[in-house]
Design goal:
single chain; about 450 residues; mainly beta; 19-stranded parallel sheet; 11-stranded parallel sheet; about 45% strand; disordered C terminus
Length: about 450
């Protein structure tokens, strides 16, 4: 129960455990807690050198304080664990309930990392990484979850399984109704340097709009083995600099308007998606001019229940995805698979006015470091109340040598087209240029001159 400071060796017996409930600082040496738990309840814990191993770590407590039977108040400060070097390994996982983990150097390895936990706790939690390496074999979850909650006369009932830990609750548990904390703080992961390797990254929860989360990347490298999903009202992944590599990038749930935002705020950001990029029904996309996403591969779609594209769009609000108007999307996945692109614009023909709030893309480039095969598809109705096939409006269309664009009976309208020797499969579709305003003016002047000449004749 005491705070522990060590430069030596603390080792659990084989099959045993050591629980430290008031934190630990490792200057050097080795600490092996077995499958024991490390609880950090103050700002004095961390590791600067050596090795630390344990079952799990919990930083902070959900409560800011409690009222004692005698009426006095016991307060709990936020917890802080600071790693500037060494190696820390937690086989079960880490949960930051109130406070933060700072990674400035060394290596952190864990099966899972949860920032926020249940929504009823304080959302004032964060993970700050300025260097070092963070390896998470399972899920990195940001934001709270609150399963099966409904307010009934000042109480709440919980009657569903916990979606994270899979614990089955009894039929009814009554707990005091707790108002949402009056704070703008959200569970946040801040990455400015170093490397983050994770199985799956969940920023917010699709089934809980009450607990937003934030991932802010101003540098460093993020390597995700499975999926990055951003869900929930006000949940956001913001990237200024550094690199992001992920197979599946999903912003918002497919059909539910749960929210979720991707913000690319610098041209220096390097983003590579190897399988699928999708914007959900309630998603938001913000990007600066010159923002670029590389799609380096695709897998055949086999689901008939959830039709998905390599580039998917389930939104019906063009203003929410206004960032597409600044995005350069580069397909370079080779010719092993055909990448599919969901068109979402109302087909208004080759009219410059059609570029207004119509899911316009700045640049579609087919072929980059490798050739690509892209097929247009119209699997989702992005224009409710309007009949007919949808179309793609793009300012710059680039077709690389050896690459293929299959229109699949759909239409593309562009301002500028660069054909470097690729192949276009029409199949009933068309590629049409929209005249620039200056060109339209020349056409009008030419028409007036022709009319005047006829009148003179």
């Amino acid at each position: 129960d005491d705070h522990v400071v060590t430069s030596g060796h603390i080792l659990a017996t084989d099959g045993g455990r050591i629980d430290l409930r008031e934190g630990l600082f490792v200057h050097e040496g080795t600490v092996d807690l077995g499958d024991g738990q490390l609880i950090v309840m103050n700002g004095q814990s961390g590791i600067s050198s050596g090795q630390l191993a344990g079952g799990s770590m919990t930083i902070g407590t959900p409560l800011a304080g409690i009222v004692n039977p005698d009426g006095t108040l016991t307060t709990y400060p936020p917890g802080l664990f600071r790693q500037t070097g060494g190696t820390a390994v937690f086989s079960e996982g880490i949960c930051v309930k109130r406070g933060r983990y700072e990674l400035h150097g060394g290596t952190l390895s864990t099966r899972g990392l949860e920032l926020g936990g249940v929504w009823l706790i304080s959302p004032d939690v964060s993970f700050v990484q300025t260097g070092g390496t963070c390896k998470i074999s399972g899920i990195l979850g940001l934001g709270g979850y609150l399963p099966g909650i409904c307010n009934l006369n000042g109480t709440s009932q919980v009657a569903e399984s916990d979606p994270v830990s899979n614990v089955i609750f009894p039929d009814i548990i009554e707990i005091p109704a707790i108002p949402k904390p009056d704070t703008d703080a959200v569970p946040t992961y801040q990455l400015s340097g170093g490397q983050l390797s994770v199985g799956s990254l969940m920023v917010g929860r699709s089934y809980n709009n009450l607990s937003p989360a934030s991932f802010i990347q101003t540098g460093g490298m993020v390597d995700i083995q499975s999926e990055l999903s951003v869900n929930g009202r006000d949940s956001i992944y913001t990237i200024f600099d550094g690199s992001l590599t992920v197979p599946v990038l999903e912003i918002g749930a497919k059909y539910a308007r749960s929210g979720g935002t991707l913000a690319i705020l610098s041209r220096r950001a390097e983003i590579e998606v190897s399988q699928r990029l999708s914007f959900g029904a309630g998603s938001t996309f913000v990007a600066v001019p010159g923002a670029t996403i590389h799609i380096t591969g695709s897998k055949p779609e086999t689901s008939l229940l959830w039709p998905r594209s390599t580039f998917g769009n389930f939104s019906t609000d063009p203003a929410a995805l206004a960032g597409l108007g600044n995005l350069k999307l580069i397909f370079e996945g080779g010719n092993e698979f055909v990448a599919t692109f969901e068109v979402a614009g109302e087909d208004r023909g080759p009219d410059l006015g059609s570029f207004f709030e119509n899911f316009v893309l700045d640049t579609l480039q087919i072929g980059g470091e490798d050739v690509a095969m892209v097929q247009l598809v119209d699997l989702f109705d992005n224009q409710p109340g309007w009949e007919g096939c949808e179309a793609l409006y793009v300012e710059n269309l680039i077709l690389g040598a050896g690459s293929t664009l299959d229109l699949n009976g759909l239409n593309i309208y562009y301002l500028n087209f660069t054909d470097l020797g690729g192949n276009i499969v029409l199949e009933g579709g068309s590629v049409a240029q929209i005249p620039e305003p200056a060109t339209l003016a020349l056409l009008v002047i030419g028409g007036v001159l022709c009319l005047a000449r006829r009148r003179r004749d």
